[in-house]
Amino acid sequence: VPLAGLIGMPVAHSRSPRLHGHWLRRHAIAGHYVPMPVMPEHLAEVLRVLPRLGFVGVNVTIPHKEAVLTLADAVTDRAALIGAANTLIFRPDGKIHADNTDGYGFIANLRQNAPDWQPDAGPAAVIGAGGAARAVVASLLDSGVRELRISNRTRIRSEQIKAEFGARLTVYDWAQAGNMLDGAATVVNATSLGMTGKQPLRVPLDALSPGALVTDLVYTPLMTPFLLESQARGCRVVDGLGMLLHQAAPGFERWFGPRPEVDEDLRRAVL
Ligand code: ATR
Q: DSSP state, 174?
């Protein structure tokens, strides 16, 4: 019986077990997906032992996403560029392969829910410069966005991203974040603001044009205050749940065989 799972700290509230559990049932695979809380000082040991217990791979979450890169035997280009991995494959020869599918999930969600979205229709504006934002920036540039604006409360983090990702980026001060929405065709909240129990994102949306596609990485609630206000201004909005669903698909396929489907059934199973 093939085993996969999630390593992180904490992992108790993760939706991934429900997500993969749904796909395992749907495909009648006698496997399991196990959430495993792992402390940083145990990470290396856990990664050595899991393959011997029958694990074919794991997802990785906070606080291990960066550390696993140094423990893996092979790292994909996109994981190296982002500086973090979310998917590990334990190969039969004992080697650990690390990938980052967050950017893929981000783009696949937009393509599925806004099929007419065009990355090169105009500038993209990314709010936030944390780990999730790095994956979003990498995938937007890869998809053909020609101008990418970024703003973060802690300015140095956006400057770091510009230093790594290059000339197509412009850094905006946090106090000027509203201005970067002017003329933007794609707008992304990649901060944790708007999540249940947190403050809402308070970037002024007056400069937002109704033709923009607006999306949020926060999916609890599905419709964040930011998405609701953008929608009220006439924008097309895509919620963040689909990114979670799509980023999981490549891992499931590598571990268990079938390419799983991302549909309404899955959304219901995960919510
Ligand atoms: P993740 O991996 O989910 O991106 P992270 O690296 O901790 O997590 O990043 C969280 C993002 O939300 C950052 O952009 C963070 O801004 P800072 O870099 O200034 O910390 C942003 N964020 C979180 N709380 C915030 C708040 N109260 N105001 C503004 N930005 C906030």
A: G
* Active-site residue list: 65
Cα of 152 vs centre of ligand 1, distance in Å, is: 8
Looking at the structure, do residues 95 and 14 belong to the same domain, yes or no? yes
Is there a contact between 18 and 61 (Cβ–Cβ < 8 Å)? no
Q: Is ipTM strictly over 0.95?
A: yes
Q: What residues make up the domain containing 183?
A: 103-242
- The verdict on 205 and 162 lying in the same domain is yes
DSSP 8-state secondary structure symbol assigned to residue 127? E
Residue 61 Cα to ligand 1 midpoint, Å, equals 16
Are both 132 and 66 inside the same structural domain? no
CA dist 27 and 94 (Å) reads 27
Q: Answer yes or no: is 26 a known binding residue.
A: no
Residue 247 lies in a domain: no
pTM of the model: 0.97
Dihedral angle sign, alpha carbons of residues 44, 49, 91, 12: negative
Each residue's pLDDT, cut to its tens digit, for the chain (271 residues) gives 999 999 999 999 999 999 999 999 999 999 999 999 999 999 999 999 999 999 999 999 999 999 999 999 999 999 999 999 999 999 999 999 999 999 999 999 999 999 999 999 999 999 999 999 999 999 999 999 999 999 999 999 999 999 999 999 999 999 999 999 999 999 999 999 999 999 999 999 999 999 999 999 999 999 999 999 999 999 999 999 999 999 999 999 999 999 999 999 999 999 9
Could you tell me if 124 and 201 lie in one domain? yes
